[in-house]
Design brief:
Elements: H1 4-10, E1 40-42, H2 54-59, H3 72-82, E2 85-91, E3 94-99, E4 110-116, E5 125-130, E6 135-141, E7 151-158, H4 159-166, H5 170-191, E8 196-199, H6 204-211, E9 218-226, H7 260-268, E10 292-295, H8 308-314, H9 328-336, H10 349-352, E11 354-359, E12 368-372, E13 378-384, H11 388-394, E14 406-413, H12 414-421, H13 425-446, E15 449-454, H14 459-466, E16 472-482
Antiparallel strand pairs: 1-6, 2-3, 4-5, 4-7, 5-6, 7-9, 8-9, 10-13, 11-12, 11-14, 12-13, 14-16, 15-16
Helix pairs in contact: 3-5, 4-5, 5-13, 8-13
The protein binds flavin mononucleotide (FMN).
Residues 98, 102-104, 106, 173, 176-177, 180, 316-317, 319, 398, 452-456 line the site of flavin mononucleotide.
């Protein structure tokens, strides 16, 4: 494998070549990571949750640091809003836990670590968020104190959790899942007006060592640092390397055999090269011809949604859509939520991914494939006609997709990205697709609509269906539509 585009193509699904999967249930990975030997600091369970509605949180501008006290309640609140168990299902061998973020195959490959320096409610050190017991596992305490307080969150991906089911393709899902979780963390911090920087670029080797990870199994994917001044080159807290070794966590299965292709793909994306700042938006690089523009009719006033926290708890993947049209105002309200604004200035999401919408049933809008939001509130028509049935077929015959009103599409010109910005840009594209996917899920929930992420599709068939040029790829889809018992 010589390029990340090659990895992507090697892990493409092909109708003819695809064979039925086999799951080794005796080697099923545990969904929770547990550091048995570590001291655990319990986090408060009774915490005050933000009162804003989702719209306010998505549009909130972070304020300079120091708005909230940095105490145990704040730490717990951030973590609970980022990742919680929100549903339980009983089955013969026990209980299965669903979380506030969706996950391909409900395999939950992501983990969260927290590091603090300076004075605070917990001593300066590195901690692991133990979701199962809602506590912080103390991984290491820093021997040399830094004067200034720094607070960093690390999101990691455990390859085998996804690879157990999806094999080589699992790396794609680890990245998409991490994007969903990252957006929840970003919104949690927004809801508290805590300024922060999202860092996709960091020295992989140093950060993985710092977290005590075996990079053949688990790797850091993104770092989020609190504080308005967190820009500039990333550096790890000083003195941390002087501390003792990190304890080992419990094994997650009998044989954690990560496919070599995944390890190689991740290594390939480790290089740091260039920024995304220059050049055209991604939609211009897909080889698509725009045939006209439509302006979406919006709500006369901003819809008053349910509380952001309630939306988080009630989000689920919904597939049983009603054969009803979606109101144009609802689509406009969805479209407004797609834009990620709080990125560092050198990082432009629009240059990394284009967002399309395959529209089947929206009031007053002819069915077709559109590009979203070249300008705010606008749709650019690319292909006329309802593609939903063909899209459902291209998505491994998942027929329910044809019942959705809209399929949001995340697309990039992979070859251009890789050649211009280096292979690490694959991570940006997948993480960003996951982030926007999470925004779609949450906004849909707030509007009483259903949404569901789709990672399984015949890649080449989907590319041809959308008329993308040879270098462009569909990365991810999220369906949307009216569901029973809810407003539309
Ligand atoms: C990256 C990704 C890919 C997914 N792909 C599919 C898919 O192809 N088909 C499907 O029915 N659901 C898909 N899902 C939805 C998951 O099955 C769902 O999130 C998981 O079962 C947990 O359920 P919940 O979202 O209701 O919490 C996907 C979710 C994610 C995040």
């Amino acid at each position: 494998m010589e390029s990340i585009t090659h990895y992507h193509d090697l892990t493409s699904y092909d109708r003819i070549k695809m064979r039925g999967g086999y799951l080794d249930w005796s080697n099923q990975p545990e969904p929770y990571k547990i550091y048995e030997e570590c001291e655990r600091i319990p986090l408060p369970r009774e915490i005050s949750l933000p009162s804003q509605d989702l719209w306010e949180v998505m549009e909130a501008k972070a304020e300079p640091e120091g708005v909230l006290p940095w105490d145990m309640g704040t730490i717990a609140r951030i973590l609970v809003l980022t990742c919680s168990v929100t549903a339980r299902a009983k089955y013969s061998a026990g209980e299965f836990h669903y979380r506030s973020t969706p996950s391909a195959g409900a395999l939950y490959p992501t983990e969260i670590y927290l590091c603090t320096t300076g004075q605070g409610p917990i001593p300066p050190g590195l901690y692991f968020y133990d979701l199962a017991s809602h506590s912080l596992s103390v991984l290491r305490l820093f021997t040399k104190e830094e004067e200034a307080r720094r607070i960093l969150f690390f999101i990691t991906g455990r390859f085998f959790r996804s690879a157990w089911k999806y094999s080589d393709r699992g790396y794609r899902y680890v990245l998409l899942d991490a994007g969903h979780l990252l957006e929840n963390l970003h919104l949690a911090l927004n809801s508290m007006k805590l300024a922060h920087s999202i860092r996709y670029d960091f020295p992989d080797k140093e950060v993985n060592e710092f977290l005590g990870l075996d990079p053949g199994k688990e790797v850091a994917l993104v770092v989020v640092e609190l504080g308005a001044q967190a820009g500039g080159r990333f550096r790890l807290p000083e003195g941390s390397r002087l501390a003792e070794k990190i304890p080992r966590a419990r094994e997650i299965c009998l044989r954690e055999e990560v496919p070599p292709l995944i390890i190689r793909a991740h290594e390939l994306t480790s290089s740091l090269k260039g920024t995304i700042g220059e050049g055209a938006d991604m939609w211009e690089r897909l080889g698509l011809q725009v045939r006209g523009q439509r302006w979406l009719k919006g709500f006369s006033s901003r819809p008053k949604g349910p509380k952001y926290a309630d939306v988080l708890w009630s989000r689920r993947s919904r597939r049983a859509y009603l054969p009803r049209e979606l109101g144009q105002e609802a689509l406009e309200a969805m479209a407004r939520g797609l834009e990620i604004r709080d990125e560092p200035s050198e990082f432009h999401p629009r240059k990394v991914i284009a967002i399309g919408a395959s529209i089947s049933r929206v009031q007053g809008l002819e069915p077709g494939f559109y590009l979203m939001g070249k300008e705010q509130g606008s749709l650019s028509l690319v292909l006329e006609g309802d593609l939903s049935l063909q899209m459902a077929r291209a998505c491994l015959e998942q027929e329910w997709i044809a019942g959705s009103a809209v399929q949001f599409l995340f697309i990039t010109n992979l070859r251009h990205m890789e050649e211009t910005f280096g292979p690490r840009s694959y991570r940006y594209a997948m993480l960003l697709s996951g982030r926007v996917g999470q925004r779609i899920y949450l906004r849909a929930t707030a509007l009483g609509l259903g949404a569901c992420g789709i990672g399984a599709f015949y890649d080449e068939e989907a590319r041809r269906l959308l008329g993308l040029n040879e270098d462009s790829r569909l990365l991810y889809l999220v369906t949307l539509g009216p569901i029973r018992g809810k407003a539309s």
